[in-house]
Amino acid sequence: MSHEKNESEGERSVADIVATLNGLVERFERFAVSWSIIIMASVSIINVIGRNVFQHSFTWAEEVTQFAIVWVTFIGISYAARLGAHIRMTALFDVLPKKGRKVLMIVISAGTAALMFFLAWYALQYTLNLYAIQRRTLGLRIPLYLIIMWVPIGFISAGLQYVQTLFMNIVSSDVYVSPTLIDEEEDEVSQQFEL
User: Fold this and answer.
1) Any idea what the Cα angle at residue 18 is, between residues 13 and 23, rounded to 5°?
2) Of 8, 53, 132, 159, whose CA is between 20 and 30 Å from 192?
3) Contact residues for 151 (Cβ-Cβ < 8 A; gap 6+)
């Protein structure tokens, strides 16, 4: 009896750790995406004012905007996968019965996770190459690998989101379109935004 209780507590503590880590990653993704957009907008506005009012364009503005675009894109990949917000072609998915939708989501999740990890591998190789040659940005002279390293991190994080979706579809009777969003709930959420 006590052995079963210890196993149950051990499983619960691992689940709690995973849930805590997942929550921290989600908060980081939200923070990074939102602040990157704010930085992009602010730098662009400052540069337009500088160019039109003071006839002086800031050399660093374009680089900072490009860096923020990289962060929004590749950290945003994972955040969108977490929320089930990626664009999907659902014509076939919508006409299938529940079992068919579940099988299709398992295939899609597995295939997308594999693609994300494949792209992460190549992005990591590119990042390591940038590190090896010590390439720097032209204006700010920042090591370029510090910016590009977010590409493989984003792909790995998105791949992990799809692995979680795959796992949820395997262990649950519901059809999950993301680690936390069930197919039926998705329709209820999208109806809130219809006119």
Assistant:
1) 125
2) 159
3) 70, 74, 123, 126, 127
How many domains are contained in the chain?
1
> How far is the C-alpha of 144 from the C-alpha of 47, rounded, in Å?
22
DSSP string across 60-74: HHHHHHHHHHHHHHH
Q: Does residue 176 contact residue 105 with C-beta atoms inside 8 Å? A: yes
Task: Kindly state the tokens that stand for 29.
Answer: 């993704």
pLDDT, tens digit (0-9, with 9 covering 90-100), for 122-143: 999 999 999 999 999 888 899 9
Can you tell me the distance from the alpha carbon of 13 to that of 2, in angstroms, rounded to the nearest whole number? 16
CB 147 within 8 A of CB 70: yes
Q: Which of 38, 31, 23, 124 is nearest to 82 (CA)?
A: 23
C-alpha separations of 55 from 19, 39, 51, 59, 154 in Å = 52, 22, 5, 13, 38
Q: What is the C-alpha to C-alpha distance for residues 104 and 22, in angstroms, rounded to an integer?
A: 25
43 token code pair: 């730098």
Q: How far is CA 157 from the centre of its chain?
A: 6
Find the domain containing 149 and state its range: 2-191
pLDDT tens-place string over residues 49-95? 988 888 888 888 888 998 999 999 999 999 999 888 887 777 888 88
Which is nearest to 42 in space by CA: 65, 26, 23? 65
